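Weekly puzzle thread! Below is a chain. First person to post its structure in token form gets bragging rights.
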Amino acid sequence: MSALIFNLLRKSSHYLVFILFASASMATTAESLSKQGVVAITSSSSNTLIVAYPRALYQLNTSNNNWLPIALPDPATVLTGAAVNKTNGVMFIATQHQGILSSQDKGKNWISRNNGLASSTITALTQHAQQADTLYSVVPEQGVYRTEDAGKNWLLMDAGPIDMSSTIIHSDMPDSMQTGWIFTATNNGVSRSMDCFCLWSQAGELAGEITALSYAPQQPKHIYAASGNNLYLSKDGGQNWAVISELKSTINTLHITTSGVIYAGTLDGRIIKSVDNAQSWESIDGS
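Winning reply:
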């Protein structure tokens, strides 16, 4: 009887050690994830965000702060951007070594969407403001590519501005020769071009490295830019800029919803939001 009790205790202790080890591993993973910069934030519906970290992808329900992991193609995938087709829910991810991939079933299966791209290294990805199947991506040392068929075929549109970095957005603000404007972050301010890619020009006198860009869907002339800890707003499509918020962390990515909520992802992995045009901020990830 004593031998039986001993064996049961020994097995129980093994299970306890396993549980403690698994819990510690999960805590370590969560802690390391929180220290990684946020790669992208985008809306998939009125109360749902897609949040991308370098090695993790989540669906975030903003009404109850519920985070749902989305499976990546493989553990080696490194994300550099994300976009969502709001008409059918198809997700797109830009990666460091696998190009662009799409998923129709929330990450259960991923399809390569690299036809026409000169490299499998993608540094930026964004969606057209009105055309769900039109996306733009950036390939280093090549330039800006566009697809009009949801990633099935890509075409090099332009070499991009000098010192273009890893952020690109499309705004449907007026006075374009086609459907809107492309804005890119550079190492010295913001550059813009009509989406006919006719000519790039400096957007105002904003200087310094730009780390994030976004625009207000209901007010497409309202362009937001982050430089270090400062958040800037231009109300005239990039002609004039003013600081509207000074934060404690460097902003890595920005997203403005149709309701005007500002979401910012930081270099240290936090997600913060403002409902009063950057006058006050609150954390939505428990940080």
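Puzzle host: Confirmed. Bonus trivia for everyone else. The chain is about 10% helix and 40% strand.
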